[in-house]
Write a structure and sequence with these properties.
The structure is a single chain. About 30% of the residues lie in helices and about 25% in strands. It is elongated. The N and C termini lie far apart (about 70 Å). By secondary structure, the protein is α+β, with helices and mostly antiparallel strands. A hairpin with a 2-residue loop joins strand 7 and strand 8.
């Protein structure tokens, strides 16, 4: 018998996974955007009434509809579907009836179906040799750079010098960091990081903001990235002072 606690433990062990904030759900980050691979099933209990979460059933993405049909044929009673999921590549898993090894296999396949190619290549059992650092070590590395202080924005720790942020922790989720480098430096870092770094979403990513998956990122590469991000501030224009406007009489 599996539980939601088992789902959380297994899902969060996969690189790049973040947990949803508004419901029980798990996504893998792809270019700064979350791509869901497992979530609690919303059951239609009463006609014309809103669906409600059913904690004993988990929806899990699969590679394609052929894979879905194959899984449903081989695991009756454990896996099922419903009209709402017709034509959609996901199966519904009865947690009380699924074994832990099978649950892990389903979640891993769902994760791989949504993960970017470079991230999916990261070993799931352990970090590569010479890789992996904690949030606290990332913090110490950032604060060891000249003139750096720690601040906070939107509930996340950030690191700044001269009033400008060059790195942060905790976004898009626990286990992630961010460094702001040039687009050229970003491209070089991503190639060297073997999937443990990727651009942030949208314009931030295009301008050089780079997400770091801490547990699998090469330590020396992160240290170099932080140093480059801090050094870039020395050549940037100072922040413009905020002007206070008094109301007219």
């Amino acid at each position: 018998m599996a539980t939601q606690a088992d789902v959380r433990r297994i899902a969060l062990s996969f690189p790049g996974t973040v947990e949803g904030k508004d419901r029980f759900a798990f996504s893998v980050m792809d270019r700064g955007k979350p791509r869901g691979f497992a979530w609690v099933w919303l059951e239609r209990v009463a006609p014309k009434k809103p669906r409600v979460p059913q904690p004993l059933v988990l929806a899990v993405r699969v590679a394609n509809l052929d894979e879905k049909d194959l899984l449903l044929q081989h695991h009756p009673g454990v896996l099922f579907t419903e009209p709402h999921y017709n034509g959609y590549p996901a199966v519904l898993v009865r947690l009380p009836k699924v074994s832990l090894p099978k649950l892990r296999s389903l979640l891993e396949d769902g994760w791989r179906s949504q993960a970017p190619k470079e991230l999916a290549g990261i070993p799931l059992t352990r970090a590569p040799r010479g890789a992996g650092l904690s949030a606290e070590r990332f913090r110490r590395m950032a604060l060891a750079l000249p003139g750096v202080t720690e601040g906070s924005h939107m509930g996340h720790a950030d690191f700044r010098a001269g009033g400008k942020v060059f790195a942060s922790l905790g976004a898009p989720g626990p286990g992630w960091g961010m460094v702001k480098v040039s687009p050229a430096e970003q491209a070089a870092l991503i190639r060297a990081a073997r999937g443990a770094m990727q651009p942030a979403a949208g314009a931030w990513g295009r301008s050089g903001s780079t997400l770091v998956y801490l547990s699998h990122a090469p330590v020396k590469l992160v240290q170099s990235a932080l140093a480059a991000a801090r050094k870039a501030l020395d050549g940037s224009k100072p922040a413009r002072p905020r002007t206070l406007h008094s109301s007219r009489p």
